[in-house]
Write a structure and sequence with these properties.
Blueprint lengths: L3 E4 L9 H10 L4 E7 L11 H8 L5 E7 L7 H7 L3 E5 L6 H10 L3 E6 L17 E5 L13 H15 L5 E5 L7 H7 L3 E4 L1 H4 L3 H12 L1
Bound molecules: D-xylitol-5-phosphate and zinc ion.
């Protein structure tokens, strides 16, 4: 599985977004992680389609849109129009998860399913073959700059084992509290798409991105 860095723009300086995104690109980050929050599924509100559409003009990175939104199926077409390449929805936010995954795939986009830290991976049992990616939240979603919850590494390990046993070649993304100190443990557990907000955007964005890329290979 290829390792990929997905810098989370939530950690960026919003007054210098374009400039900082260019640095992540220059450093080798293939994805850009875009956190959409509705103030209902999570306490905070971030940004939505207009911001994503504006950034689309600045970057050809894969736009990995993390929908922290109730019933995200309502926004699949609008997100596609704004420039999403991959839409990741929370199992906890979808009444009809199977339908929502199909909606995303039928729109011609990659689909991801996210789980909050406390949600067991057993909820994925019947849909393991459907999405392209599984996102394991390693913090309670809503804010950047939190500390990684260690038991999530065990969830990643178990999920990778199940996917391997079934011959399923799927991405596992981790999101929350990732640092240059814990990244090796995370890769070892079986995650291969790495979201990093504060640890990329605090300090030199280019140097931080390069430091991650050196480890991700
Ligand atoms: C949190 C978001 C994350 C966040 C990660 O709810 O989903 O993507 O930006 O930020 P860090 O890497 O600072 O924990
Ligand atoms: Zn996120």
């Amino acid at each position: 599985m290829k390792n990929i860095l997905a810098p989370s723009v939530l950690g960026a300086d919003f007054s210098r977004l374009n400039e900082q995104i260019q640095k992540t690109k220059e450093g080798g980050a293939e994805y850009l992680h875009l956190d959409v929050m509705d103030g209902a599924f999570v306490p905070s509100i971030s940004f939505g389609m207009p911001v994503i559409a504006a950034l689309r003009g600045c970057s050809d990175q894969c736009f990995d849109v993390h929908m922290m939104v109730q019933e995200p199926g309502r926004y699949v077409e609008a997100m596609k129009k704004a420039g999403a390449d991959l839409i990741c929805v929370h199992q906890e936010a979808c009444t009809h998860l199977d339908r929502t995954i199909h909606q995303i795939k039928e729109a011609g986009l990659k689909a991801g399913v996210a789980l909050n830290p406390a949600t067991p991976i057993s909820v994925l049992e019947n849909i393991l073959e459907l999405p392209d990616m599984f996102l394991m939240m390693s913090v309670n979603p809503g804010f950047g700059g939190q500390k990684l919850i260690p038991y999530v590494l065990e969830k990643i390990r178990s999920l990778r084992k199940i996917l391997n046993e079934r011959g399923l070649d799927k991405d596992i993304e981790i999101d929350g509290g990732v640092t240059l100190e814990n990244i090796r443990q995370i890769l070892d557990a079986g995650a291969n798409v790495i979201v990093a907000g504060s640890s990329v955007f605090q300090g030199s964005v280019l140097e931080n991105t390069r430091a991650f890329m050196e480890i991700l290979g």
